[in-house]
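User: I'm curious whether this sequence folds into something compact or stays loose and floppy. Could you predict its structure so I can see for myself?
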Amino acid sequence: MPVWHERTRSLREAGELVVIGIAGEQHADRTRLFAQWHGIDWPILWDPFNLTGSSAVPNITGIDEHGVVRVVRPKPETFDEDFLAPEFAPPPDSDPRPWVLSPAALAEPAAQGPVAALAWFLSRGGAAKVEPQALEAAMERRLAALALAAGAPGADPAWSFRLGVAHRMRLDSPAAHAGDLSAAVAAWTRALLASPHQYVWRRRLQQFGPRLDKPYNFYGWIERARAELAERGEEPVALATRLCGSESNERGSPPFAEGEVEPDPKGAIERVGGLLDVDATVVRHCRREEGRLDLPTDVQVHVTLRPRRGVHWTNDAGPALVWVDPPEGWRAERRLSTLPAAQAETSDEVRAIDLELSPDPGVLLGEELTGYALVFVCGPDDGPCRLVRCDFSARCR
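Assistant: Here's the prediction. I'll summarize afterward.
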């Protein structure tokens, strides 16, 4: 894209060419940071639901003044002769193609159905200001509409992909559910199994998957962008959602920790139910999901913890800890993790860590990963503040 930015600058300044970008990034602020870093000044539309149907990126398309696609994936060196120089005749009158998001759907955000649900998610810029219970109810209604579309007989697998995107959006919102990442991964997997050559969908799974399934480091550029923008005297665009480790890992095998001390080996710390929702999501290699690999492969494990309504973290008491016990024949990148705490004295945000597990050579089956979190919480409501243990498990094979 930077090549095209320079190639088309004079044409855009002369009013001879209009450039519009479409970004399929899950998090819009990461696109804004990339555009700031490269000085991209054309409008960029946000398409996290892949409404364009793109199966791979980047795609460059030349559309003439009549609204007709004339060139697809043009080369910068022949762009003038292929697109700018020719005089294109207007097409004969024809009915326009139906929109996935119609003007009517955008004008009626309260309407029911999956299309209106997509419109609502795309336009919810003020959602953080909505009362949490109202936001949670609104998201639940829209997710239900998308789930119905994804589960309908003969449904386009794109609806499963979109359902996964919506669950990830909820995880990043004040109405987050700890199980949203599991739901997103399950939906993206269903979509990919139905359309294995849809590489945009594949990349979304690989974003949260093991190192050996990554074609490249997806977000290694972010720290470089921040540093270069700071050197230029610019304030980098702030990212609303922190990067998890799997999003910026390099391809290859993970290092493995040794000699870590288990914090509660005898299970002495009190177990109290109803305080937290804990989710352990296992993301496998895409080829393993598709049945193209016979043996288990590395998996990425994401553990998320969400206080239930009326419960909050007491941050001055100490950090939350997560301990994992890999299945027999598996090794962990690390077994003990410390979850970062907010600066405030109390808070109720979702907290998460991720780590990688690898099977030893010859392992045929991976059984159950088990583990627990040790957390300082208060509640519900005016309930006591205490250190509690929350157990979890997940299948690794």
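Summary: The chain has a mean pLDDT of 88. The two ends are 39 Å apart (CA to CA).
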